[in-house]
Amino acid sequence: MKLHIVNRAPDAGRAVEQALSAMTAEDRLLLIEDGVQGALPSQVDGFADIEGRLYALRDDLEARGLMGRHDERVKVVDVDGFVTLTEQAERTLSWY
Amino acid sequence: MRDEQTPDGDLLVILRHGPHGTSWLREGLDAALVGAAFGREVALLFMGEGVLALLEGQGPGALGQKGTGPTLEMLEMYDIEALYVEGRAMERYGLEQQDLLLETRCLDAAAIAELVDRNALVLTF
Amino acid sequence: MATTEIYRYLIVSDTTNVALDPEGYLVEIEQWTPDVARALADEEGITLDEAHWEVIEVLRDFYARYEMAPAMRPLVKAVGRALGPEKGRSIHLMRLFPGSPAKVAARLAGLPKPSHCL
Questions:
Q1: What ipTM score was computed for the predicted complex, to two decimals?
Q2: Which CATH class is domain B9-58+66-124?
Q3: Known Pfam families for this protein (chain A) (predicted)?
């Protein structure tokens, strides 16, 4: 299993699309920084193919006032959870 | 474009930026060349605007930055011959293999995921 | 990479000297002449003969085409293509340009330092 990390908003370029193309059926995707905009209910359909494997970083949701507005299908992790995801992955890829 | 399976490689460098606007493309190519100089088997995947890096007829930039054309032609001297392009990006830019400087293999999303999975190290630029 | 920092001057003849960077590469690569190569070779304790000159020519062609000085692996390949498989071997280049052939030969050929070497 690989962990893909996206720090760009879905509206800003192709980072999300590229990360999704590069994911196998076990891989997980973590949204950080502006990437967490993708966790909003209006955006989350774009991640339908990886349901159950989509994560967002709590600190970045909170900083943007998006905590609580995110879709319930997105798993929210804190920094410790981020570390755990990294440790569980064989490899980590960043899409920016 | 061939159909046989992609080989397992040591290093996959993903180039996602076009020439001149930023230094990402050049840095990615440098990483690939360093890997090859150290004897690693290196593959390149051009995604998104990165496919524009392969266009025929590029030149140096307005401020005299080097063009990437000569570096791309040099890849074979470093035995970097596994070159892939993202099919969706080729379509989006209206490009065909004949528009490109080098022979590449065009991949759909599933083939990209497989390629990324098969390489021991993947660097995104 | 080529630098523009002038560290010292290489005396080529009574009337000519050329600027070198801290690592001994030409600051202005256009100033290269065969005499510059001979003067640089003297510093390395190398006397240039036909076998050296043909490699220097391969390097200069490589640079003209690709705008970069090659690391060892592509240098071996380029020499092999231009001069035949007997010469396209590390051992041949090690004999001609002892130490680090890609760097030494690039220096004598008036190229910038190879940027993808150890």
A1: 0.87
A2: alpha beta
A3: DsrH
